[in-house]
């Protein structure tokens, strides 16, 4: 088993974040599950503790500098100094450009990009001191462009840019930084997309699967499994990469 480390997973209440937090615990790490409200992570923490792991639910607005500082201080005092960070927190405020508000733009960029910046800046010192660190940022196939998602696409493309830059800056300290870009993953977020465009989630999944070479949509665990490798000691020479988890090639 790999060395026990302290892992922070943002957006850990459900979907990819919850699956990732649970996988981190299976890998032997202590997990801080962050979401806007600590109580929203109760299910994730319960799943971890029921399997013999240790986890802490922490409430934090990752787009707020003070909230991030307080959350990281809480993790350090109650679990220890984090050397694994998964920047998964994200929201959608979909609309066509002419109907998209400035608030919708700012909210999405704030949670995804500002959140990844603030969280990464807050923990990098612990990683540098330890001579080991793993940061994984969640991008998306939407980074390649997706109708009705100018804000989300820009944020997810930005996640790739910050990934490559931090990989350059932090590599000499034993810190790797990578991005995972999922395609269609069956989560509450994709269910909300189906509702927005006015189709049933079942039909949405069926139609999506028909376009995917492996003939199925992804599950949160598909992303968590890759996450498990990227944060491990075995991935020490993999950095600055954007890995698409989409069931086939991407453009």
UniProtKB/TrEMBL annotation:
InterPro entries: KR_dom, NAD(P)-bd_dom_sf, Sc_DH/Rdtase_CS, SDR, SDR_fam. It comes from the Bacteria. Keywords: Cell wall, NADP, Oxidoreductase, Secreted. GO terms for molecular function: 3-oxoacyl-[acyl-carrier-protein] reductase (NADPH) activity. Residues 5-183 form the Ketoreductase domain. It is found in: Secreted, Cell wall. Pfam families: adh_short_C2 (PF13561). One of its GO terms (biological process) is monocarboxylic acid metabolic process. It catalyses: a (3R)-hydroxyacyl-[ACP] + NADP(+) = a 3-oxoacyl-[ACP] + NADPH + H(+). Belongs to the short-chain dehydrogenases/reductases (SDR) family. NCBIfam families: PRK12826.1-2 (NF009466). This is 3-oxoacyl-[acyl-carrier-protein] reductase MabA. It comes from Rhodococcus rhodochrous.
């Amino acid at each position: 088993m790999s060395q026990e480390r302290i892992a922070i997973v943002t957006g850990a209440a459900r979907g990819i974040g919850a699956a990732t937090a649970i996988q981190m615990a299976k890998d032997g790490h202590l997990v801080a599950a962050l979401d806007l409200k600590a109580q929203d992570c109760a299910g994730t923490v319960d799943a971890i503790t029921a399997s013999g792991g240790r986890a802490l639910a922490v409430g934090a607005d990752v787009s707020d500098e003070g909230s991030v500082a307080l959350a990281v201080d809480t993790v350090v005092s109650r679990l220890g100094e984090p050397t694994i960070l998964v920047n998964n927190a994200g929201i959608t405020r979909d609309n066509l450009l002419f109907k998209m508000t400035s608030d919708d733009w700012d909210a999405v960029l704030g949670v995804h990009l500002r959140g990844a910046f603030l969280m990464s800046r807050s923990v990098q010192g612990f990683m540098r001191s330890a001579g080991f660190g793993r940061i994984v940022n969640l991008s998306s196939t939407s980074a390649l462009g997706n109708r009705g998602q100018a804000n989300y696409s820009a944020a997810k493309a930005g996640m790739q840019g910050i990934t490559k830059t931090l990989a350059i800056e932090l590599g000499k300290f034993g810190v790797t930084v990578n991005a995972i870009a999922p395609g269609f993953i069956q989560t509450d977020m994709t269910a909300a997309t189906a509702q927005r465009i006015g189709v049933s989630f079942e039909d949405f999944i069926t139609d999506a699967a028909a376009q995917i070479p492996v003939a199925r949509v992804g599950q949160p665990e598909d992303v968590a499994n890759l996450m498990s490798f990227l944060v491990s000691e075995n991935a020490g020479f993999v950095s600055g990469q954007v890995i698409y988890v989409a069931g086939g090639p991407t453009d």
